[in-house]
Amino acid sequence: MASSPMESGALVLLQDLHPFSPYFKQGASLRVTGKLQEYSVETAIATVVDGNDSLKIDTKLLRELNIRVGSMYQFIGELHIQPDNEVVLQARVGRNVDGIDLKLYYQSLQLLRQFQANHLKNPTA
Q1: pLDDT value of position 3
Q2: Of the candidates 88, 33, 82, the residue with the CA atom closest to the CA atom of residue 58
Q3: What 3-state DSSP class applies to 123?
């Protein structure tokens, strides 16, 4: 029985996850980075923040991840949108990224998006 290939997680900022965003789609495979603000052991739901934006992360599949409130994490998973537009990322991969240079990370993400936009407009370039 053949299974469909798993998509890579598109790099997004938490501020990109709003109802009018192209990333705001049920089942979208995303990679997000943020500071772990809270974590419930009972539900395995974490909340990561980046500035004023936050996202709930379902970590049930991440048995080996050592979760520490206040640390920086990067998660890859699928977006689940509830009827009230509340979103939860069902994480399949998670890693601690304490020490990441966020300013450099944001700059590289901006450059990647510029490159992709130019490349998609002119694939022969």
Answers
A1: 59
A2: 88
A3: coil
Question: Averaged over 30-45, what is the pLDDT?
Answer: 96
pTM of the model: 0.86
According to DSSP, the residues that pair with 87 across neighbouring strands are 81
Could you please report the per-residue DSSP string of 53-99? EEEEEE-TT-TT----TTSEEEEEEEEEE-TTS-EEEEEEEEEE-TT
Dist CA 28 CA 7 (whole Å): 9
Single out the residue of 90, 81, 109 nearest to residue 30, CA to CA: 90
Q: How many residues does the chain have?
A: 125
Structure tokens at 117: 């936009």
Cβ count near 78 (within 10 Å): 19
Q: What is the pLDDT of residue 124?
A: 60
What single DSSP character describes residue 11? E
